[in-house]
Design goal:
Shape: rod-shaped
CATH architecture of the largest domain: Orthogonal Bundle
Largest sheet: none
Number of strands: 0
Radius of gyration: 22 Å
Helix content: over 70%
CATH class of the largest domain: Mainly Alpha
CATH topology of the largest domain: Arc Repressor Mutant, subunit A
Strand content: under 5%
Length: 122
C-alpha cells in the first residue's frame, strides 16, 4: 500500500484521535496533495510546524493501528464475508440444478440480507 493511501486509510479509521488542526493538516497533505508551504499559508503555521504536526499525527495514527488493529480486522472480516458469499453462490447454484428446495432459497435470501447489513458496517 502506498504511504498516501495508508495514511488516508488510517485517517478514516483513527482521525478522531487527532486534534482538529492535526486532522486538517494531514488531510491537506495526504488527501488534497498540498505542499508544506501551501498548508502553512492556509493554516497560519510555519512550514516546519506543519511538518512537525504531520509527523506527530502519523505517529499517533500508526500507534492506534498497532494497538487496536481495526484496519487489519476489517480486512479479515471483508475477506471472510467474500468467502461466505462465494459459498452461498455455490449452494444456490446446486440448489437450483439439483434440489430445488424453497427452504434453501429462503435461507439464502436471509443470509444475503444479513451480509448486506455487515457490508454497510465495514
Amino acid at each position: 500500500m502506498t504511504k498516501n493511501l495508508e495514511i488516508s486509510t488510517l485517517l478514516d479509521y483513527y482521525g478522531m484521535l487527532l486534534t482538529d488542526k492535526q486532522r486538517e493538516t494531514v488531510e491537506y497533505y495526504y488527501n488534497d496533495d498540498l505542499s508544506l508551504g501551501e498548508i502553512a499559508e492556509n493554516t497560519g503555521i510555519s512550514r516546519q510546524g506543519v511538518r512537525d504536526s504531520i509527523k506527530r499525527s502519523e505517529a499517533i495514527l500508526f500507534e492506534a493501528e498497532e494497538k487496536l488493529g481495526l484496519i487489519k480486522k476489517s480486512a479479515v472480516l471483508k475477506s471472510g464475508l467474500a468467502e461466505i458469499r462465494r459459498n452461498i453462490d455455490i449452494i444456490d447454484e446446486k440448489n437450483m440444478k439439483i434440489y430445488r428446495s424453497n427452504a434453501v432459497n429462503e435461507s439464502i435470501k436471509v443470509i444475503l440480507k444479513e451480509l448486506e447489513k455487515l457490508d454497510e458496517i465495514i
